[in-house]
Amino acid sequence: MNPCSSVLLTDLYQLTMLQAYVEQEMMETAVFELFVRRLPPHRNFLMAAGLEQVLNFLEQRRVSQTELAWLESTGRFHSTLLRYLENLRFTGDVQAIPEGTIFFPHEPMIRIVAPLPQAQLLETRLMNLLNFQTMIASKAARSVLVAGGQPLIDFGLRRAHGAEAGLFAARASYLAGFAGTATVLAGMEYDIPIYGTMAHSFVQAHRDEATAFEHFALAQPENVVLLLDTYDTEAAAHKVVDLAPTLQQQGILVKGVRLDSGDLADHARKVRRILDEGGLPQAQILASGNLDEYQLQRLVAGGAPIDSFAVGTAMTTSADAPSLDCAYKLQEYAGRPCRKRSEGKATWPGRKQVYRQYGQDGRFDHDVVTTLDDRQPGEPLLQPIMAGGRRLLPARTLTESRQRAAAQLALLPDSLRSLEGGRPYDVQIAHSLQELARTVDRFVP
């Protein structure tokens, strides 16, 4: 069994609450919404990602006999809960913001409408799936915005916080606009283009660089991208030029070279000149080595002759903003709107919709968060996804979500495209939602 698909991949308190709900027959319809309270520092927006994995989890969620036996062996859980879990299926409704959509704090990403125990038990895994991919897609989108159309490649698997994180980072970054990934399994699982060159160890394993380059070219004649910085970057570029005619006689062209250390802009200029003067103007330059969006912006703005970039650790771990302040909160139970009023963590009650309004230039102008029955001008962001535990439409492909992400980034106003935190985007709380909150407050015991 894949541990990541287990219902037991949850917090203990989900099961302890579930036992009480089942025993007290609290099976009325509950409405939970997942949202982000505030943006991380220097972020101007978030990009929704991870919904497809959530839907797969909802469709496949089952409790195995092995899991039931283990739960019973702990002595913590009664037979009533075990019987409930044995027959557990998701039978609820889902409304959500489509993957690739730009969104902001206080705007629900997803709404779950289901019997209370079903909806409650989803909390931990839903937050886990949506938080991570949204965090990575939002980070990757920043690199896409500053790359000036240059291809970006995910090189981060080896620094990812686990196998699932590495795969999801490849998926989320591709959704946000990256050209591909070095993670081979992501190519098979998600149909993402895969890219790769060689490691320094390959060069070191040979007695000299020229032989290493030749052996790699013979092994990968359609993908001759050679790593230059094992010893001396410019000297290695000259060796590539010297080797190229021999390879060409065998029908092999040098596709490109990779720079991975030092002053990338300076090396790129020197290597570009060596390649051009050596008759290899078609050979492209790929740069890697601890890149993030800030370094990309400097390299692109400085006119460094780099054709593509490989981004690893900083993106795959979202190093400068490694978490989101997201929450999955009960907004209605048994037809009664609910609201948390904790200091600094108050929520808006009831089922909500977000309407996006556009300016005369066609770009985002402001959003309105309101109650579900309060129709506002603009585009409603939350869409029906599941009803009665079944999808309403075929699964959206990753390519479709990627196209939506590109369209969303094109509509960002200039104030949101900066890498630094600028003027916050205008998210308005409608009068109807404010009035509902006041009504709920009057009846809080």
Question: Care to describe what's here?
Answer:
There is one protein chain. The protein is of the alpha/beta class and 445 residues long. The protein folds into two domains: 250 residues, nicotinate phosphoribosyltransferase (Alpha-Beta Barrel), CATH 3.20.140.10; 176 residues, Aldolase class I (TIM Barrel), CATH 3.20.20.70. Strands 13-12-1-5-3-17-18 form a seven-stranded antiparallel sheet. The chain has a six-stranded parallel sheet with strand order 7-6-11-10-9-8. A hairpin with a 2-residue loop joins strand 17 and strand 18. Helix 7 crosses helix 15. The chain is globular, with a radius of gyration of 26 Å. It starts with 11 loop residues before the first helix and ends with a helix. The model has no long low-confidence stretch (mean pLDDT 96).
Describe the secondary-structure layout.
Layout: H1 12-23, E1 29-36, E2 46-47, H2 51-60, H3 65-73, H4 79-86, E3 93-96, E4 102-103, E5 110-115, H5 116-121, H6 123-146, E6 152-154, H7 163-176, E7 180-181, H8 184-190, H9 200-204, H10 209-219, E8 225-227, H11 233-249, E9 256-259, H12 264-277, E10 284-287, H13 293-301, E11 308-311, H14 313-316, E12 326-333, E13 336-337, E14 352-358, E15 364-371, E16 379-380, E17 383-387, E18 390-391, H15 398-410, E19 427-429, H16 431-442
Parallel strand pairs: 6-7, 6-11, 8-9, 9-10, 10-11, 15-19
Antiparallel strand pairs: 1-5, 1-12, 2-4, 3-5, 3-17, 12-13, 14-15, 14-16, 17-18
Characterize this entry briefly.
The protein is an alpha/beta fold and 445 residues long.
